[in-house]
Amino acid sequence: MFQSNLARLAARARARWVMIAGSDGVLLETDSRAFRTEAEAIAAQFASLFRISRKVAGDTESGGLQSALLVTEQGKILLQALNEDYILILFLEPDSHAGKAFFEISRAAGPIEKELRY
């Protein structure tokens, strides 16, 4: 359903993989077949982290959390709210530019959100 949009986003952002998860942690879609069996657990973990971060941002009157960036030894993990119910999760190559990835997400968000409504 979302495969073409996720594949295009992954290529443009230089992401190893991309997934869409519900804010409840349920995996909606991923472009990676390599770790499909673990993808559901990964989606649940990152959704939980985003949900907690969103609550902390609200509790500290920092405003609504739109995105988060985690930097690891192997790359960068970008979490982006699509709406109240869904988040986009990307794992970027270590030398990828997060700013470019955010830009590519802004380009892809419209078509992805449109698909979420149907």
Task: Provide structural commentary.
This protein is an alpha+beta fold. It has a single domain (3-117), classed as Beta-Lactamase (2-Layer Sandwich). It is built from three helices and five strands; from the N terminus they run αββαβββα. A five-stranded antiparallel β-sheet has the order 2-1-5-4-3. A hairpin with a 4-residue loop joins strand 3 (67-71) and strand 4 (76-81). The chain is globular and about 35 Å long. The N and C termini lie close together (10 Å). The model has no long low-confidence stretch (mean pLDDT 90).
Features:
118 residues; 5-stranded antiparallel β-sheet; Beta-Lactamase; single chain; 47% helix; alpha+beta
CATH class: Alpha Beta
Question: Which radius of gyration do the C-alpha atoms yield?
Answer: 13 Å
* SSE pattern, N- to C-terminal: HEEHEEEH
Amount of helix? 40-55%
Number of domains: 1
Question: So, CATH architecture?
Answer: 2-Layer Sandwich
| Mean pLDDT figure | 90
Order of adjacent strands in the largest pleated sheet: 2-1-5-4-3
- CATH homologous superfamily name? Dynein light chain 2a, cytoplasmic
> Structural class, judged by helices and strands?
alpha+beta
The backbone outline, from C-alpha atoms, is globular
How large a portion of the residues is in β-strands, by DSSP E?
25-35%
Task: Count up the helices.
Answer: 3
